[in-house]
Amino acid sequence: MAVRAKHVLLIAALVVMALICTADALKSKRIRIQFYMHDIVGGPNPTAVRVAGRMTNYTGSDPIATMFGSVSVLDNPLTVTPEPNSTVIGRAQGIYAASSQHREFSLLMTLTYVFISGPYNGSTFSVVGRNPVMSEVREMPVVGGTGIFRLARGYCFARTYSLDRMDAIIGYNVTLYTKPKSDNHYH
Questions:
Q1: What pLDDT sits at residue 177?
Q2: CA distance linking residue 164 with residue 66, whole number of Å
Q3: Source organism's superkingdom (predicted)?
Q4: Angle at the Cα of 129 (from 104 to 68), degrees rounded to 5?
Q5: Which end of the chain has fewer CB atoms within 10 angstroms, the N or the C?
Q6: What secondary structure, in 3-state letters, does 133-167 show?
Q7: Which tens digit of pLDDT belongs to each residue from 126-176?
Q8: What pLDDT does 102 receive?
Q9: Distant-in-sequence, close-in-space partners of 86: CB < 8 Å, separation ≥ 6
């Protein structure tokens, strides 16, 4: 009987320790990042290119409606500061589409932010959501990530730093919540 009680007590202690370790492993880590994205649509080396759009026979006069349906593919540099010659830390790669027909110009953003240097080198996070471009500050959801940002969730705030014709520099403040990496993964 005494041996059985010791086994039950030992098993109970192991279960409690496993639950504590599991709870610690499931805790989220908060990461905050700030960077600038350079969206260049004009000139000899554009980083965003329109690949689809409304038929040329559109006769409306509303400039927002004229853009509706336009789709662009991009590979924009991410930099530490808004200066064009600032250190490149990553790329924003994906698609945006003009998704509004009336009053407010908005884009549907489907972008992956890829880090190529610094502490997040090799890691990515993805944003999918509506971007009301003319609003001073836009909030969009982070829906996933890889590397250090594995299982990321969170949000980003975008603010236009400068706009020259259609070329823009956008400041991003990103808050990510990530799960600690597990040792049980494939290499």
A1: 95
A2: 20
A3: Eukaryota
A4: 40
A5: C
A6: CCCCEEEEEEEEEEHHHCCCEEEEEEEEEEEECCE
A7: 999 999 988 999 999 999 999 999 999 999 999 999 888 889 999 999 999
A8: 75
A9: 36, 79, 80
> For 47-100, what is each residue's pLDDT tens digit?
999 898 875 666 666 666 777 878 999 999 999 999 989 999 999 999 999 888
Residue type, 158: A
Question: In sequence order, what E strands does the chain have?
Answer: 29-39, 48-52, 71-79, 88-98, 107-115, 124-131, 137-146, 153-164, 167-178
Residue among 130, 170, 141 at smallest CA distance from 48: 170
Give residue 67's pLDDT. 79
pTM: 0.78
Asked whether residue 105 carries a pLDDT value surpassing 90, the answer given is no
* Structure token pair of residue 27: 């805790």
Give the SS3 label for residue 29: strand
**DSSP category for residue 40:** -
The one-character DSSP state at 63 is H
Helix (H) or strand (E) holding 26: helix 2-26
Q: What is the DSSP-derived secondary structure letter of residue 110?
A: E
